[in-house]
What we know:
The protein is an alpha/beta fold. It folds into two domains: 15-44 and 277-367, Aspartate Aminotransferase, domain 1; 46-273, Type I PLP-dependent aspartate aminotransferase-like (Major domain) (Aspartate Aminotransferase, domain 2, 3-Layer(aba) Sandwich), CATH 3.40.640. 41% of the residues lie in helices and 14% in strands. The chain has helices spanning 6-9, 20-27, 46-56, 60-63, 71-83, 99-110, 126-132, 150-155, 179-188, 214-218, 247-256, 264-273, 277-300, 321-330, 350-367; strands at 33-34, 93-96, 116-120, 137-141, 161-167, 194-198, 223-228, 241-244, 312-316, 333-334, 336-337, 342-346. The strands form three sheets. Strands 2-8-7-6-5-3-4 form a seven-stranded mixed β-sheet. Helix 3 packs across helix 12. The longest helix has 24 residues, at 277-300. The mean pLDDT is 96.
Amino acid sequence: MLKSLDYVSTIKPYVPGKPIEELERELGIKECIKLASNENPLGPSPKALEGIKEFIAYPDKVSRYPDGGGYYLKNALCDFFTKKGINLTHEEIILGNGSNELLDIAVRTYMGYGDEAIFSSHSFVVYPLAVQSVGGISKEIPHINYKHNLLKMAEAITEKTKIVFIANPNNPTGTCVKKDEFEMFMERVPEGVLVIVDEAYYEYVTEPDYPDTFRYFNEGRDILILRTFSKAYGLAGLRIGYGIAKKEIIIEMNKIREPFNTNSLAQVAATHALNDDEHVRKTIENNEAGKRYLYEELKKLGINFVPTETNFIYIPLDIDSQVLFNALLQMGVIIRPVGPKAVRVTIGLPHENERFIESLKIALAKII
Ligand SMILES: *Cc1c(COP(=O)(O)O)cnc(C)c1O
């Protein structure tokens, strides 16, 4: 009988947020809302859509393979960072089919069977999956107050440790690591251990003491900074993200990367979205307003939540998360259960946030 590798057969598959169309089919109703996958409720950058339209006006552009090196997007990224006072070259950038793919590429570049990776409990569920896919060993360090315990994470590093993952801000808890903690951590990390800082929600951060990861990139440290177009830029469906690291790291990762891993439309859309400051500004404004509304309503209901640096809110529960999830589903509201006793809710448009709160009231009245 054909058998997969032991460490593959024991992988617990990733459970994605439920698609809206699926719920609408099941309930036979329209106008369900999805606050489950941290997508941008304002949709994609209009400039990105314009870029796509221009591109497909030349049909042969779609029949050709994409530019595997992503020349124009890398140019746009270099310009984008120059404006922020950060000098980058193409050799220091890698594009991914979502930043998710870059996590996988980094793992396959630097880890093998029996090697260790470190990350926090209550962090991004993709890290253990990537590590297990190569037969690596995951060391999960308990969080403190829904935050990474960076001191304990540094202390857990051994000869076998190849990668440390830090989601900053963290998904699903929405918390962030601060500058001084990160400095303390970087002082303790030996050479030869790759620190991956996953900054998928970077644009939403309000914490003034957010760490400057580029400082360590400039110092030539073993650090890989990941960003994505899936969240604030609203391009989750196109799958595109990028990594920044010193040349030596990017060269090695490029050996593992598929030659045409990012597609033409994603590259074009991202290149245009990057210069759409207005869309990002509106996105952040909507998020801040939604955050204030949800905080207030949750407080009124006496529901505890973890203050967020992202576009979602983590709500610890004293009831079963699946029960609440299902009750809300029946009302056409999709959120995300995370573990047995917590849910994560994406901040949506004002009417979506209101619908969530109203449905939550009804659901809780039924359950409790
Ligand atoms: C959403 C998310 C990503 C980005 O995924 P993409 O593959 O770029 O869509 C990466 N890390 C975390 C922690 C996320 O929540």
